[in-house]
Fold each of these.
Amino acid sequence: MNITLEQAQAAIKAAQQKAGEIDVPMNIAIVDSGANLKAFARMDGAWLGSVDIAIKKAETARYFDMDTGEIGKISQPGESLYGIEHSNGGLITFPGGVPIKSADGEIIGAIGVSGGQVEQDHEVATFGMNAVK
Amino acid sequence: MNITLEQAQAAIKAAQQKAGEIDVPMNIAIVDSGANLKAFARMDGAWLGSVDIAIKKAETARYFDMDTGEIGKISQPGESLYGIEHSNGGLITFPGGVPIKSADGEIIGAIGVSGGQVEQDHEVATFGMNAVK
Amino acid sequence: MNITLEQAQAAIKAAQQKAGEIDVPMNIAIVDSGANLKAFARMDGAWLGSVDIAIKKAETARYFDMDTGEIGKISQPGESLYGIEHSNGGLITFPGGVPIKSADGEIIGAIGVSGGQVEQDHEVATFGMNAVK
Amino acid sequence: MNITLEQAQAAIKAAQQKAGEIDVPMNIAIVDSGANLKAFARMDGAWLGSVDIAIKKAETARYFDMDTGEIGKISQPGESLYGIEHSNGGLITFPGGVPIKSADGEIIGAIGVSGGQVEQDHEVATFGMNAVK
């Protein structure tokens, strides 16, 4: 199963709304179950450098089927996956990437958000993810 | 001046609608005046390989402020810009990329569409471009 | 739907057998419906440079849901998709890449073969594709 | 001397079997003595991001003729090879890559495994390596 464009655009719309509420312009990317880009939006005033980061966060979350922040914890110096960010053309391993599941629990894609503090990015990504029905 | 996300999403919405009318699922990308990705949508069933092509068409149209098909004409073997597609990490020089202008004629971004015949891509891109007010 | 490893390995086994019959060592790559590598084999004596070509042929066939040779025809100088090979990090647009369909006609992946004349590559790829049930 | 495809496929088959026993779907890559891809398999349900990691582990193990985990120890911050992962288009320096030797002790290739805990990856890689006669 794969995320539809309607679902992806619903996630982006929700994420934009949440980003507006906390007043932080964000880049928001959605990939499908094959980790291929499905939808994207850069809010007015959001960092240009976060285009790539938002996309990489979404890819990373789908590559390993977990929140990007979790990968960050286990890839610190001395930890088991130290250096993993050198794979796949560059991963982003701090918070803001979250897998998206279907109603029956299958992973159908992922959302990546970048533009604020990483906690804000994660909050907005989670809000967007929850908008997918 | 720069395209806003509202304008970019209006262009994508219009392009999706036109693509639906001609029954060809499309990838649609919008870049801003800095040639940086602003918004993107891949319609369900659209070619995976057209994600990159749609983005490169939008970039190419803004890089040179002309329709991508025009660049294609002057970059054929023997023509003056032969080989230009090797620049900028890869250009796409066939139709489907169109600059977007503001009401007063300033270029504020570009749209790139990929997924059908190049004439269809150009038609959908033009329709999306015209939706920007 | 997505190709399984069992199906992918059956395709490779069949392709290896056909390549052995025509006595041309081949590189054989299988990607899934998301164009991600699923299985690969390089026969003893096959060209090293064909590792990447076989993989790119499989990706290209899935990117556009058609035989790579078909893309080659419409991307010659003067044709509508001239220069398309500059997209997606490099396409291969000569024969040897073939989509793989499920029993009900859905594309579930693709096979790419490289190592011989392009007609031989296409023959071996088609034989491998037909081994998927 | 160089690993044969028969040997590489035997290593993959054994690694698949061991991965099945411990119930962790894995990506398994084999490179030859020239560090070029020889064979590959992604088990159903294995991480997409581990395609590249498995291949890079196999390459890394052959590049330096040692287990990837050993390279990880000497490339931590403050250690002598800190930053080595930036070479060769990206190395992977945590466990899961193991050189493969012929019966007379010559290195003929390497195996890289990714998909579980690094200890599991190393266990499966070692099991696959030992299947090469």
Amino acid sequence: MNDGYNVAVVGATGAVGTKLIEMLEQTNLPLKNVKLLASKRSAGRKLLFKGEGLFVEELVPESFDDIDIAIFSAGGSISQKFAPEAVKRGAVVVDNTSQFRMVDDVPLVVPEVNKEALKKHQGIIANPNCSTIQMMVALEPIKKLAGIGRVIVSTYQAVSGAGAKAIEEVKQQSREILDGKLPEDLTTGILPVASDKKHYPLAFNALAQIDEFADKDYTKEEWKMVNETKKIMEDDQIKVSATCVRIPVITGHSESIYIETEKEVSVADLRACLEDAPGVVLEDDPSQQIYPQAMNSVGKKDTFVGRIRQDLDVTNGYHMWVVSDNLLKGAAWNSVQIAESLHELDLVKI
Amino acid sequence: MNDGYNVAVVGATGAVGTKLIEMLEQTNLPLKNVKLLASKRSAGRKLLFKGEGLFVEELVPESFDDIDIAIFSAGGSISQKFAPEAVKRGAVVVDNTSQFRMVDDVPLVVPEVNKEALKKHQGIIANPNCSTIQMMVALEPIKKLAGIGRVIVSTYQAVSGAGAKAIEEVKQQSREILDGKLPEDLTTGILPVASDKKHYPLAFNALAQIDEFADKDYTKEEWKMVNETKKIMEDDQIKVSATCVRIPVITGHSESIYIETEKEVSVADLRACLEDAPGVVLEDDPSQQIYPQAMNSVGKKDTFVGRIRQDLDVTNGYHMWVVSDNLLKGAAWNSVQIAESLHELDLVKI
């Protein structure tokens, strides 16, 4: 028995960071102290944790001297620099960025799917991409029931995945359009990808680009869904292709997913297995117009699944609509669940 | 040679009707007179046609006495009642509603694809569903090049497809959300389907329901894409499944389309054949972040195709992103093109 963990949140003032604090307030993980870390610019700010004011401290290597679990969500370059420092000082790192996800000895974990992979950790555990996580939660029970040979996914992703500035930008653009501004006069500069050459309006638009373009004209976001799925499901044979699209929703990713199973099953079988699956809420009653909605997912930890239908021609093909809060299950909640799993499996040395 | 057609627009004051008037201003079809028809409520209003004020007249059976071509866009029940009246009085009807689309001797026409089907018309020609039309324009050249065995489509459809009141509703909801109203306090009543039991907010949301639910838990909109594709392409063997989703875009439908061709081709071959295809504008240069966008399609008659990629596992599988103005190519422009084709093929008796 330990008397609780010292947990650090790196990037505490960001869009995901503030959700991490909320999730730590709700976790069953025994906590001794919570330390909030951010850049020098944000240091000195006071944030509430369980009703108590905590000062945000500047992130330095020594920040991790007394830390058991460090949850990172401050961008890839910060993780690259400071995660090894945290490990060196004895912390286990749960990293929300893409920095270490595809590194061989770094477990990439969705607790409902591959919690056991944590046992091989070498200090760093990666939290998968938001759009991958919710797909994994929905597909794992189906994989257990019938095997999955193939996945084709088209996403409808929310803007909060691109950070707080992107949210402000799309709100600003929305106001401008409602006030009658022309498309060419809208404020742009962040979306679709802050670091990329061109920027386009997202308000009342749909942008088929998330992250930069990469190999074979797929974007990095699309490659994440492909490669992370294979790693998390520990199955290199599973066929995955993705089209990732940003739409003007603040929070809540939606996904239109087509799967081909190895074994033919009925839609009733699929519904039954999803109804019992961890982390899944089945919302699938067309007669009552019940189906998952991004807006309804906000603030909830579950992944919502509905619109389950058999393909009209392929007998082992199925379509579904999968929705989750991208800041919670897609990021903060999955990270805290990983910390809970580390505790449950006794994988953090104190 | 004739000295021009007398053309009636039924539903002249609606979202599509006003676009029909614009398209008739731009058409090469020889016009003698244009008659604007609508419900009693709208009769007496004056609309501009080529700078001239035209009075909207009340729709009655006798409205068609001197009409050669009548373009209907006033809802299925109006078409059901008045299209046969127009035909009886010697007019050829181009119907924008779903009323006659699947009737055997009614040609369902996208001029770039199956103009020849007009030759068998018995007085009524149906304009396909907006989401089907743009898909057909993009797929026909590929079908000619390599054959198409299978289509899986997920749509990102604009709200103007649901009419002028739906546009106002989503604008109102957007303002309310930007002003801080909670989801449960938003104004609803029209979307997703005015005639259905429940109504949900669409602003900053995505609704996986367009039209009512029907057979096998697919919506009527999804069935339209399936059945109309088979009819237009004159191929009952083509496998089509659809997931239709409304997103907060005012005008411009986007579609994530996966196809399997009969013959394996390269992405370069696909781009080349689309570049030369009628009604298609290829916008596909990832290195310059060039891909179709709903916002850019507004007011244009073309169908924009981009994000063309080979599937990562299936060698005859391809993904693409297809965008078009749902009020123009998806409705008004396709209807006027049908009228132009009727003239070209000399299929209207004067």
Amino acid sequence: MISEKMKPLMENNSAIRTMFEEGDKMRAKYGRDQVYDFSLGNPDAPTPPEVNQAICDIVKEEPDLILHGYMSNAGFEDVRETIAQHINKTQGTNFSMKNILMTVGAASGLNVALKTILNPGEEVVIFTPYFLEYNWYVNNFDGAVVQAKTEPTTFQPDLAAFESCISDRTRVVLINSPHNPTGVVYSEETIKGIASILEKKQKELNRTIFIIADEPYRELAYDGINVPYVTKYYDNTIVAYSYSKSLSLPGERIGYLVIPDELEESELVFDTASNANRIIGCVNAPSLQQKVIGRCVDAKVDLSYYDKNRKALYEGLKECGFECIMPQGAFYLFVKSPVEDEAEFCQAAKKYNILMVPGSAFAGPGYVRLAYCVSYETIVNSMPGFKKLAAEYGL
Amino acid sequence: MISEKMKPLMENNSAIRTMFEEGDKMRAKYGRDQVYDFSLGNPDAPTPPEVNQAICDIVKEEPDLILHGYMSNAGFEDVRETIAQHINKTQGTNFSMKNILMTVGAASGLNVALKTILNPGEEVVIFTPYFLEYNWYVNNFDGAVVQAKTEPTTFQPDLAAFESCISDRTRVVLINSPHNPTGVVYSEETIKGIASILEKKQKELNRTIFIIADEPYRELAYDGINVPYVTKYYDNTIVAYSYSKSLSLPGERIGYLVIPDELEESELVFDTASNANRIIGCVNAPSLQQKVIGRCVDAKVDLSYYDKNRKALYEGLKECGFECIMPQGAFYLFVKSPVEDEAEFCQAAKKYNILMVPGSAFAGPGYVRLAYCVSYETIVNSMPGFKKLAAEYGL
């Protein structure tokens, strides 16, 4: 009954579903607080109180038919201008509303961007490991993913390997920093290195290559680390942003694309992306949530909520003898499996009611991903289990 | 810079933009209330007060992380069950939450449905005239639109012509009732006729053919006319619904798909559609608006607002001598152009500050569409202009 293109995706989906169902069974059997579920990247820091206040204020203050009505497919102009000025203030850029396109979260923003610029058969280079749903988005437009490897210990891009991945079919380089699943933040040096290779390749191949910077975790960066704003280093950059993590609003589906003036034929690309937003069926980002962002542009979840978890989990695992790098951003820890087959390691962890995702689900075999967007207690209470697990592997 | 697939769509878009810009220029020159703009299908009946009340209540009563958080890609289970029961109550169906998939409006719902079932090269049969954005959606999945003609005076499907449109490549018949741009409601006889042809063709061709019933105007049906619920007449029916018109919430992007148990491999199709919702980048319908629907499932805009306009415009135009059928639903009137080239007629109307859309924009040449989702005053005040326009054409 279902389309040929969806069939393989549904098979993959059953595997994920099986994992969820297993977690549910465990919770039913042992009790919710006795299961240490690190499998889901679901933001759980409290939504800033400004958000709900803004919702009530807006509903009282704004005329219904405008608030709930259609606007330009790119979004409300006042909201777009507010966001542009906010980025300018925090990143030293020079955007205005004509560079900001409101989208149904970053996932839809990525689809809008790819619909706008990607032709069938063209290549999208992505650094491993990575969020495998990117494959779906590229597949939506019949593009091909080319995996570029990263340095084995730092997960920063291997620039020589990256350069060899660029071909006369490359259309997009998709980067994600702070990074899912490693928690790495790409350094300024890395961004400059990527940019300089792409500048050279654009000339050499006489074609435009875009960076799409997927940045839903931009605000989740710890210890004051700098997350370079990619448009400042490479002209043909489109940024995809989401408020899912910065405001703990993932269900509301609100985000934006940045299409800078410096991007080639910027105005045409922007207009085309606005239309793509319509053509893929979104039409526009949800109107009330756009207005919420207009009023809450400075709001942020309490970063210390995740930071406390980050430190506790990292330190706890290191103490057990596990090998991992300290994440600089996002809410994930990428831990080296003590055995090559990390699925076996995940299976063993279930004995201690610990749920983790095999790195192969992120094109990163030999590792496991732990999402620490959980309660602090979950982390503390999971530690005896991790200790036993480590002992099992002779750590 | 832009993808090959988007290029032709952008050319078409410039024509629409030119029309809007012309309207804006007119408004600037003559004043907003001196321009009679019937070009936009933008709901303008007041949003029912229950909606804003529900928004404020929900924000106060529901836990933030659930309210604004991720849920199943199909939507909140309680909301889906509420909607299922509402349809059962009003239509005599037998749905439950497992038949209801929340979507980012009907436009996205249609894309989810097509992503789920349509293969490249397969055909989607659509009755003319029709909302041409359907072409985009079919094109998103590399399908082909086959236009089926309707009866010249009633715009009810010509069943003999329809039957000849069904081939061994037909996958979907897309119907829309109440209808944009004609305001026609498909009678029970019509729906039965379509269903019986499809039953026969499914057997004859040994393939599954789906009806997708796009029903954003379902609640806008006048004089108590019955709008048959298509799932009751044909098993392989998917309904796409939106609250854009029934609650005047088009900017909020909230709607649903109905995938009945009777549909072949219903469960697989439902699961695939849930995943398609994720894969096209929507992930889920906006969470707060889902909850709003859960509380406002019985709310409706005041139908008399549009009905008054419908009668005034229809009677006014008939009095002028124009030829049109009385619309039974939606908020459009499809008027026969007094000359073959309806673009010329639209151009002539601009002299009287009247803006209408040429029927060719709906694959319905020789007609013009007037959207009467405008103030009553706009209709009354436009009449002297229509009289002069009629006189120009010797009516």
Amino acid sequence: MKPIKVGLLGLGTVGTGVVRIVEGHQEDLQNQAGSSIVIEKVLVQNKTKARAISVPQEKLTEDPWDIIRNPEIDVVVEVMGGIGNTRDYILEALSLGKHVVTANKDLMALHGPEILAKAREHGCDVLYEASVAGGIPILRTLVEGFSSDRITKIMGIVNGTTNYILTKMSQEGASYGDVLKEAQALGYAESDPTSDVEGLDAARKMTILATLGFRTHVSLDTVSTQGISSVTKEDILYAKRLGYELKLLGIAERQDDSISISVQPTMVKSTHPIASVNGVFNAVYVYGEAVGETMFYGAGAGELPTATSIVADLVAVVKNIKLGVGGKKNALTYNETRQKTDEEISSKYFLLLHVADRAGVLAQITQVFAAFEVSLQSVLQQPNPNNPEAEIIIITHDANKAAVAKVLETFHKLDVVHTVKSVYRVEG
Amino acid sequence: MKPIKVGLLGLGTVGTGVVRIVEGHQEDLQNQAGSSIVIEKVLVQNKTKARAISVPQEKLTEDPWDIIRNPEIDVVVEVMGGIGNTRDYILEALSLGKHVVTANKDLMALHGPEILAKAREHGCDVLYEASVAGGIPILRTLVEGFSSDRITKIMGIVNGTTNYILTKMSQEGASYGDVLKEAQALGYAESDPTSDVEGLDAARKMTILATLGFRTHVSLDTVSTQGISSVTKEDILYAKRLGYELKLLGIAERQDDSISISVQPTMVKSTHPIASVNGVFNAVYVYGEAVGETMFYGAGAGELPTATSIVADLVAVVKNIKLGVGGKKNALTYNETRQKTDEEISSKYFLLLHVADRAGVLAQITQVFAAFEVSLQSVLQQPNPNNPEAEIIIITHDANKAAVAKVLETFHKLDVVHTVKSVYRVEG
């Protein structure tokens, strides 16, 4: 069997990992895939730059079309990131009959349907396991492991940077700003951390998870997204005191034909399996009607974990090529669904209010909840240690998002409510 | 596309779940698999018995050959258990070109190579995801998700009964005997619990996990197996006090070409992800050289979780039939490995000794460890509350199994050592 030739777009951290695994595990890969796998060409920005691994000079190119339009190349592995040119390269590669493996969550979240349609048209595989939760094989689990089940909920800690920050804040009582600076110094957070800390990265990954888990088309712009930049150490302290951990959770829910997807800091009951996922680790919790609760845990990023997923996809593509079934097994999205309205999205909420410390205030506040039919699970009133006012901590029973918004709107107009300090979704 | 016809061997708990999912999710399955899936015949012991689900009388049969030799049937799903007749049925079905999905861990652990060879010979698929850890898709994760990696360690809580018993003992300070009785009353343990509590069930599952994870032939009789029937509530109390949970762990390790597999009650550091897997839940922890730490969590048994895995296998088989690649994708075991000797098996150990309470005893005991080059991580001596003797609690550094056995042998001969109360492997 002739070797399968791979063109690698990008030789950064993950690209380096792909080269290391393909070369280091060559014999194993050949046993698995039934063919040897050769990295034929590698796109780099600068051929003369010093690198962590040695790649023969004649394999390096600065021209992407050397790979995309190279008739020798069977599979394009894209680890360069970006969505502008990258999209063009991938569409062109597919239209020339090349299979594609990509780690590009932005591209798949924004242009997944277009890319998969092009792949179908030309009989090509497109696999993208590494785009979500690095080394955790969660996409094939959703597509194949749970093909028999109806998944109704997916909750993910899918951004290592924010989980690192929240874990540090929780374990050390540190402030958001201090931990962010430390994370930047350690290379866990970028100098412009917006995409991570504002939940945008997680929203893209949740779009991909929900698309595959619910087998439906999900548009990124329907994902309601809130980051962690306004989380305080006091919030985390309150959460712990009540038996919760504060986590940036992506939550995708499905009920019959309606779905909702959101990303937000969420208080998770500390006995829930996802509550103890700490540091840069990722985890995806999946609830299926038949299988019940499951969770998948591992490294969400990093050179070798991410490359593990890419090369596993590459093995799958090579097997399909050998069996002559390339492009026949791409995941399908056949369910017609609609986005839930805020009236249909239901969860528990935590609220921390600063209120006037005088008779009748609690009654006034609880009447607002009652007026919008939000029932309360627990209420705690105590003096605010810093001001001559009272603190009220409330956890609601399941309530719909629209009703909670109305409660908050009413609070903003009430004199006795000085500040709505925090509002968090509650899970578990 | 003509419907794919399934013969179901067995209509107990899991068989009932298979019928429920195939019927309840028919439209979804058709979308996934590209064909409708019909349960054509069901083997039962007694056609007239009342059942939890209604299956048309003409589909029931009491004769297995009605299914095995039925030319209409494309796939045999085996959920009857046992290894004698069942093996004959499956071998015959394969030799007649029928694909097989089975939940039978005993059969696959004991006769896996023979069955897979027969499948290869006749171009048939054999899938058995449900045989290990019920609803957790761990076998396809090992085979496909980590095809690119070299797995060096697999640790599993793969028996729900024993995990339920140990969790109850830990949470309620109850004795083994009392919790076992309760588990039997609740149906979590069988009236003869030997296979579960003595670790035999877990050993079979570890054989399958190690075969697929290490891609080598593993023989069940090389699995060193110890159950939980002699675990005391005091052991669990000591474990907790030192920051550990006591779990029945299957541990499979690989170093280059040597492997070792064992099942034993193990003290797991409470910060390790597998330490917080409680009750009847299962989890499999997988360490790969590239991917690092991962863990997969979910229901290990039960009607619908187990049936989820079986029907997911069925969908995979149907896809393969449609693509004409049946039998081309069975997992391979090409690595030549040998069993590690006791000198090569290394781990930490916990020991609880009752010793004479007089000067020089601790020195005598620590000299024994030193003589066999076992170094100690921590030593605690305290009075035994029940007898005029001392208790010594030791945790070793990594030590080889042979050396620890020699230490214990020496203790049995020493007058000052009254009793070696407990010896446990330590992880994490």
